[in-house]
Amino acid sequence: MIKSINVLLIFYYGIFCFVVYFCVFFGLRGFVYTDWLTYVVFYNEIPVLSSGWSIIRNFLTNSEYALAGWEKGFIIYSICMKSISIDYFGWQFLFVLTDFIVLMFVFQKYVSLQNSILCFLLYGGFLIEFNLLRNAKSLLFFYASIKYLHDRRPMPYICLNLVGCLFHTSSLVFIPCYFLFTQKYSIRFIFCIYLFANIVFLFHIPWIMSAGEFVLRIVKLERILTVLKIYMKGKSYGITFAYLQRTIEFFLIFFIAMKYVPYGKYYYLYNMFFLYHFCYLLFSEILVFVERFPILLVSSYWLLLPKLFENIKYKKLFLLFFLVLGLVVLGKSNSRAICIYDNYLFDYMSYDMRKNIMHEFYGQQ
Description:
Layout: H1 2-27, H2 36-45, H3 53-62, H4 64-67, H5 72-84, H6 88-108, H7 113-131, H8 133-150, H9 154-164, H10 174-181, H11 187-202, H12 207-218, H13 223-231, H14 241-260, H15 267-282, H16 287-292, H17 299-311, H18 315-333, H19 351-363
């Protein structure tokens, strides 16, 4: 009896530590990364609920954010959060708190919270929480809808992602993806696509531009080529540390994880993982696409890797390997001046100081 109580106390103490770490580290961060510059101005301009319906309605329809296409769901949510927050940092804290609560509900359905949170931090979590405030809210609805991929229930899945569109229109992409995620593919077929995608990537085959020019000329929409060429200014990444990292991870999942976490049972998570990798390889011509789209599918790491850690024989060895690899990549991607971390509870750099650092950083690019 005493032993069971001790185990429960340790478990809940661990969860408490995660809550404090997650909400304090992310929720009370200073002006880190880049998008805070937009959101601080946005916070200062949005009204509160007590401002009255006419002011709120005018902001929803005539503000520069509404005219720029910011989703009304996100604006209304932001107004509600501002109405109960003290300042910008309180508003930011509430944003992170809601993210954490949803993530906890999603994670506990699949795997241990500790391993899931670790994978969240190593794979995409920093970028999502630091920079993608609008995207993050829409992604929460996708995370909640993953369960319906397993149950093969398209209506609740589609409805949740349509609600997500009210926060960021990128959620629209998840609706047709339902039919990709819920199919069981031949393992040989998946591997053949992966090999083909690597050939396209490594030999810099410009298939998107060629296909785009061919189709647009047939349908007599050559003017769209001008827009397409603007986005084609990105270049292939080539063989970098990130490419080697993703290659190692793909092979470990493909050849080892499937032995312990069966594809037939978790095919929808595997399909998300495979699509994540295919996007990097096949669409490297479009830099903006590679930077924006794969992050929407990175949640497959948060659920698949902990499953592997739980079922594999040498779990500590694999956990250590992914931990070291993830920390190296995390360190490299956060070594820039704009990524210097500070916290609201301690001595943090002012808005003007951070703004100057960001302008100096991008001026050197």
